[in-house]
Amino acid sequence: MADVPFVDAHIHLWDVQRIRYPWLTPPFADDGPNGSVAAIARDFTVAEYRAQAARWNMVGAVHVEAGADPAQALDETRWLEAVADAEQLPTAIVAFAALDDPQVEQVLAAQAAQPRVRGIRQIVNWHSDARRSYQPRDLTRSAAWQAGFAMLKRHRLSFDLQCYPGQMPALAALIARHAEVPVIINHLGMPVLADPHGREEWRAGLRALAALPNTAIKLSGLGFVARDWTDALVRPLLAEAIDLFGPARCLIASDTPTDTLFAPFDRCLGVLADATAAFSRDERRAMWGRNAERLYRLGLGARLDIAVETRSTSCPTL
Length: 318
Prior knowledge:
TIM Barrel, 8-stranded parallel beta sheet, globular, hydrolase, Amidohydro-rel, Metallo-dep_Lactonases, Metal_Hydrolase
């Protein structure tokens, strides 16, 4: 058992019979951003998640919208609320809303009315290479999308930002204008190391975002750095991200089951444990749980302050 409580800041659950997920629907191809997702195109339940996380002193988890058909976004949230009522997970929900939707005000109001909804995610990754893009154009440049982003404050919603580094400088200017909206960068900022200046662009983009006090970053999504990632590849990136944002603004997350396409759950969490091992106990408590507690308003309270005394040489130490 790990020695600090763990709040997983980014998980997905799905019931493919109840909700339609276009990206989990055949036919599958290997040339998209995730590669083939056939291996995870089945129900993923709380019981399966608990089994994966069994070695990590998990006390809570944040569910992030899982790419449901936009017409079923509210259905996904309501299903998750029912799951949480029965299973005590997820602890909080980051729901979907298309911020450029003409009806976005009503959509945000409906999502925010659900008890566990704390934020919104709309994946906005755009790249000049269409094989990398999740969107046909850079939505974040549109006046409609930016107006929708501004509405998040009214509903006390954070925003989970999944973008590419090339989009970050312009997004930093927008985020700076809306300092009351917490923005949590997904998956280490998704560096595109194959680009000619990919690492430098990622570093510059993160530096621009990290300069804003209302931003934080999830240490997750290592398979998006490279499907065949190694510790030697990702450890310097993790160190840079922590250095830029500081332990008070970094959140540990598994991105399961998506990231299990690339490596087992324990391997993903293991490299994050190694990357944070040299920090003080309070700093590790922050990265592994307290930051998620604060940003997503989880209400876990004393569960994050319990010191775990049990040790096992076969279990990870955070």
